[in-house]
Amino acid sequence: MVKKILIAYSSYFGNCKKAASTLAASCDEEGMETSLYPILESETLPEKPDILVLVTPVRVRKIVGPSKKFLRKIGEKDLRYALVVSHGAALDHFFSPVPATKKLERHLERKEMVRITEPLFLQVERQQGPLSKGYEKRLADLAKQLSQAVSEEDR
Ligand SMILES: Cc1cc2nc3c(=O)[nH]c(=O)nc-3n(C[C@H](O)[C@H](O)[C@H](O)COP(=O)(O)O)c2cc1C
């Protein structure tokens, strides 16, 4: 059975949107069936996927509210997920996205959701972007990991 991968994103300046569509294109190349879901523009919830990828910015040291609210609604036990987090600050800076991402992961673990990859951190050059060089390759690598996770599940 084909596994459905939902790539949900929140995006204010377009960087997460771009990352989400780049990832979807890479997933297509890997032969996976993906759909894109714009959290900020959607009023109805999507169908439950087999794998959820959340692409979200960090703002003021927090994962943005709409992304967390979306997870509260769609998240459930055993749902497999991956996170892509866009950020401006360096990973060892006071405004680092790492603590907020870890906090979210702990929350999802309590919900008994299953993380399938390490979170992918994508830096933007300035507050409004663009995404730092090399993001396409990093997303293509993530697509490969997702493809592996899907085929392991099918075995
Ligand atoms: C009000 C505001 C607060 C922000 N706070 C942080 C922060 O605490 N840490 C960080 O790394 N980046 C921060 N950023 C940068 C955002 O992460 C960046 O704008 C975002 O990743 C761009 O993604 P988007 O175009 O999809 O919205 C902030 C940006 C704004 C506008």
From TrEMBL:
Pfam family, any one? Flavodoxin_5
Q: Which InterPro entries match?
A: Flavodoxin/NO_synth, Flavodoxin_dom, Flavoprotein-like_sf
Task: Provide a Gene Ontology MF annotation, just one.
Answer: FMN binding
Q: Where is the Flavodoxin-like domain?
A: 5-147
The organism's superkingdom is given as Bacteria
Which residues fall in a coiled-coil region? none
Protein name per UniProt? Flavodoxin-like domain-containing protein
